[in-house]
Specification:
Length: 197
């Protein structure tokens, strides 16, 4: 998991220093989506799933955990190749300056100071991977699987409400995640998982 996260951060932020002039994404439909600062807490809850989903999978289904982690790494690789070929950006609104919500939004916005790598959204594609993993984890209680799926989809919606992404970013994230999940499924993790179980 630590190796996966190191690769995630290095690829996502490192690629931004190799990219050319970004293309602006977004359209009229995006402008109709209201800016809802309070949704930043839902957006930030992604980090809980980033740790919690592989932890649950590792306990309940090590092979599925390895599949998820490989899919995550493929997602980073594929997404960053796309960013290098076609970098994307857009103008975000000015975040509120007062209160905890303003602080959290300001922190999230400033963490990606170059603000590139919009389409496909990694925040969304990894959220879809959470959902795919939950749907595949038949050994987990149904209620827990449904919570993860709904939570993941709500996070996707939050990226639009806090203006971290545009509709095209979320839409392109779904096929990206699906391809990565399918590619990861081609690997045989049974022997490797047995060594760690």
């Amino acid at each position: 998991w630590a190796g996966m996260m190191v690769f995630h951060l290095a690829a996502y932020f490192g690629s931004q220093y190799l990219e050319g002039e970004p293309h602006t994404v977004g359209g009229a439909l995006d402008e109709r989506i209201p800016f809802r600062p309070g949704w930043i807490y839902v957006y930030s809850s992604w980090f809980a799933l980033l740790f919690g989903v592989p932890l649950l999978l590792n306990i309940a289904a090590p092979e599925l955990c390895l599949k998820y982690m490989l899919a995550h790494c493929i997602d980073q690789l594929l997404s960053n190749v796309i960013y290098l070929i076609y970098p994307t950006t857009f103008e975000r609104p000015v975040p509120p300056k007062d209160g905890l919500t303003g602080f959290v939004i300001g922190t999230v916005y400033s963490a990606n100071h170059r603000f590139l790598n919009c389409a496909p959204s990694v925040h969304c594609s990894v959220s879809f991977l959470f959902a795919f993993a939950a749907l595949a984890a038949s050994m987990l209680p149904l209620w827990l699987r449904l919570v993860i799926v709904v939570w993941s989809l709500t996070i996707v919606a939050s990226t639009l409400f806090v203006k971290q992404h545009k509709i095209i970013d979320a839409v392109t994230a779904l096929p990206t995640a699906a391809v990565c999940w399918l590619l990861a499924g081609l690997a045989d993790f049974s022997s490797l998982a047995a060594k760690f179980s």
